[in-house]
Specification:
It is built from two helices and no strands. With 63 residues, it is mainly alpha-helical. It has a domain of 42 residues.
Amino acid sequence: MERLKTYIAESWDEIKNKVTWSKYSELQGSAMLVLVASTIFALVIYAVDVVFKSGLKWFYREF
């Protein structure tokens, strides 16, 4: 049980005093970058899906 208490105390000390936390403005910028990149990725996947869907419809109609 003593080992668990020591582990928790050392973990708390590390989180509180030794970790470098990002500024809130940096986190906002990173979040916006992820949002924009995810949206662009989703639109590209949607476009590829539409092209393949149209191509397969044409292929099955012709043959």
